[in-house]
Amino acid sequence: MNLEIPKKFSPIVHQARQVAQEVFRPISRKYDRAEHAYPKELDMFASIMDGMNEGAPDGGAGAGKLARSGGNGNDGNRNGTNMKTVLGLTELCWGDVGLALSIPRQGLGNSAIAAVANEEQLNRLGDTWAAMAITEPGAGSDSAAIRTTATESGDHYIINGEKIYVTAGERANAVVVWASLDRNKGRAAIKSFVVEKGTPGMTVERLEKKLGIRASDTAAIRFENCRVPKENLLGDPEISVDKGFAGAMQTFDNTRPVVAGMAIGVARAALERTREIVERAGIDLSYQPQTWTQSAVTRELHLLEAELEAARLLTLRAAWMADNGLPNSKEASMAKAKAGRVGNAITLRCVELCGSLGYGETELLEKWARDSKILDIFEGTQQIQLLIIARRLLGKSSAELK
Amino acid sequence: MTRDPIGLALSMMNRLAANPLLDRFGLRTATERTAYHGTRVGFRTIALAGREFKRVANWLPQKRLPGKSAPALFDLTLDDDQQMIVDSLHRLARDTLRPAAAEADEAGALPADVFDATAELGLTLYAVPAEFGGVAETRSPVTSVLIAEQLAWGDMGLAIALLAPFSVAQAITQWGTGEQQSRYLPAFCEEHPPVATIAIDEPRALFDPLNLSTIAESTANGYRLNGRKNGVVLGAQSDLLLVAATLNGRPRLFIVESGTDGMDHTADPTMGLRAAQPVTLTLSNVEVSADALLGDDDFDYQAFLNLGALLRCGLAIGTSQAVLDYVIPYCNERVAFGEPISNRQSVAFMISNLAIEADSMRMLAWRAASRAETEQSFHREASLARLLCSEKAMEIGTNGVQLLGGHGFVKEHPVERWYRDLRSVATHTGGVHA
After folding, report:
1. Would residue A401 count as lying in a domain?
2. Over 70: is that where the pLDDT of A68 sits?
3. Contact B399, B408 (CB under 8 A)
4. Is A191 within 8 Å of chain B by CB?
């Protein structure tokens, strides 16, 4: 048994930490204020990052290569891409969540491609910067209820519908769109399609103004008779009741631990900064057996740290299971649920503990408290995670436990 | 407190209600008394202490178990030995502890056959190095945590009683001098190992294990101990006690054998852990020899407490897992408004959270233990694990009862006992050492 980060990931963690510290932190407040301004610093950095990724044996710190490792071979215990990606994103989000989401070619849309694409598609589309378009005005967590359709027409599909909350939807080179081949056939008919930027019929309607992660653009996109080549349907075009929707959903088993890692990163940033501020105020934060005579802030910070550690270890467990080809749906949701809520709670409490200093814009604490909220919402809300966990624990179908 | 007329009247009524004449004239239903005596029948509790430990003339040199080497990769799989121990202790917990738990709680006593069944498995052998008759080759806090987890899944009160001797053996292996190890450890490898315990807690609010009121003074021949300890599991049955006391301003542990003059114990029943027979221990001018001081220069009280915290986390995790394993079938079978209550999100989400927090506790405890096992620093990790377990164990206990509703409140189901037992995770320091 070993619950430490393996040494082989030290370089990638160090690299991501340097990026977070030297690239993200200095421009963090600037792009929080200048919402929708393109962080041009990221272009140069993205090329460097591509280079880093090429050089790293398991790929770099981004989510772009996340996926179907889990070759459950005879080579014993593996620590692979899933764990590495969690670690990388944790560090990047220690720097800035919004900027981490805006790194070209490293987004979660790419992990959707990596998860369900066939070999040909992987070669053709693997290096495209792809955003993910699932949510609709009338369908959020209930992704089986989406109304966007894809109709067969010769060697194309024609896509019609409206998508919202598309992270990097304007900046990315392509959008992975979830649409139904046949709305009468339920969730099995939902497939994902890669729509490249500039395809006629695809329009970015507006960019949202948000509570947090303002450096990341969140687009609303309209598809009107948008023609997409047939070979851009990711995975199997057959409508199979057995594995259709499940196939689309399996992306989440790999991406949820990564989003959990993001929550851990921003929470750790807040906790570290708060410790500095509180220690400067003369409080002893050394680890002692908890007594009820120690100061309230000491106990609170230790408890927050324990919660953060729990989230971190649950997340590493989920990633480790994915790396070893073990079914991890329940554990991925446990990690996301725990990290999402404690990440948010920690950043909010840190603002509170630092008082008006924490609430003001001279510190980044108030920003982190705004940024963290989305991490308990996207890639499956807290409530959706609890639902998934409960269904697994109780052996219930989605019809029984709604 | 001043008494007013209503208070006086109530007090008189109370005394009347307790009057045995009521019973003599058959004015009270007899049923309420039979229940208590019924449980005593066929119940054999472990015998009182009385074993002697002979000084050994040719004692072996001090033995410290080496740490294991840290694996290169993150890995949550148990090794073959750990899996084997977990499997056999799970069987013991399921077949022996769980069936005995309710009665042992009611009787407030550790049944002798449970103690014997555990001794048969040779639990204490895992705490003792081969030189002294045991089977331990390396330090193994992870295995200790796994053992506590399994036993406490059966019952926490029984588990802590069974683990007290194991913990004393662990502590003497970890901290004892060569003389102390030679004198005490072989006994733990015999067919009938001694009963032993660790006394740290003291009966006062805001207790801090780093600031002990129990005092040790140096004397011409050794030390003199004065003070009070409470919540001492198996305190009356133990042949051997490790007692924490302040010596020259620093906390230390003293090995005290039962029957030493000046030791007195009174039963001190608690909210839970009743099978472990907690007592209050009074030490009045207890004289012990110079070699009763546990360990020498390498003794680290903080690490001693940390290793105790790890085992307590193991107990918390085991009982929390028991709650989870119990509420799942219960909520699936319990029907209200025409369907299982687990079809409701408000119920189902409580169960999800129960699982999340039980695993949170487990991950923190495992990490701290695996660091201890591989001789890495683990003070921070053990502190955080203990804090989280103190916080979450009770949350799980109270939600376990809540999920069963009224059925959770009655003794027909074990969750009310688990509720009482889980409260101890945050209140107790003594009795355990990984």
Report:
1. no
2. no
3. no
4. no
Beta bridge partners of B223: B218, B288
Q: Answer yes or no: is A96 within a domain.
A: yes
Indicate the residue among A200, A232, A264 that finishes a domain: A232
- Domain end call among B292, B310, B329: B292
Contact yes or no for A306 and B371 at CB 8 A = no
Assembly ipTM: 0.93
The first and second tokens of residue B255, run together, are: 């090995």
| B98 lies in the same domain as B158 | yes
Residues A248 and A389 both lie in one domain: yes
Local confidence band at A245 (pLDDT 50, 70, 90 cut-offs): low
Whole-number CA gyration radius for chain B:
23
* Residue B400 covered by a domain: yes
Task: Give residue A56's pLDDT.
Answer: 57
Q: Is A162 a catalytic residue?
A: no
Cα B396 to Cα A189, A308, A396, B326, B389: the distances in Å are: 41, 19, 22, 12, 10
Average pLDDT, chain B: 92
Same domain, A289 and A201: no
Q: Are residues B131 and B219 in the same domain?
A: no
B256 and B174 housed in the same domain: no
> Are both B89 and B171 inside the same structural domain?
yes
Q: What residues of chain B lie within 8 A of the CB of A393, using their CB? A: 324, 328, 351-352, 355
pLDDT in tens, B104-162: 999 999 999 999 899 889 999 999 999 999 999 999 999 999 999 999 999 999 999 99
Number of structural domains chain B divides into = 3
Is the pLDDT reported for residue A58 higher than 80? no
CA dist., res. A156 & res. A106, Å (int): 28
The CATH number for A59's domain is 1.10.540.10
Please tell me whether residue A199 adopts helix, strand or coil conformation: coil
CA angle at A155 for the pair A153 and A161, rounded to the nearest 5°: 50
Side chain identity, residue B123: L
Best of B75, B206, B399 to mutate (most A CBs within 10 Å, chain A): B75
- Residue A288: is it exposed, middle or buried by C-beta count within 10 angstroms (0-12/13-18/19+)? middle
Whole-angstrom distance, CA of residue A263 vs CA of residue A372: 6
For B356, the closest of A291, A338, A383 (CB atoms) is: A338
Instruction: Please indicate, yes or no, whether the overall pTM of this predicted structure exceeds 0.90.
Output: yes
pLDDT digits (tens, 9 = 90+) for A340-364: 999 999 999 999 999 999 999 999 9
Six-digit token string for B118: 């555990």
Structural domain for A319, as ranges: 244-394
Beta pairing class for B250-257 and B240-247: antiparallel
Per-residue pLDDT, A277 = 98
Q: Which domain holds residue B130?
A: 80-194
pLDDT tens-digit series, residues A184-204: 888 888 999 999 999 999 999
**Are A302 and B361 in contact (CB < 8 Å)?**
no
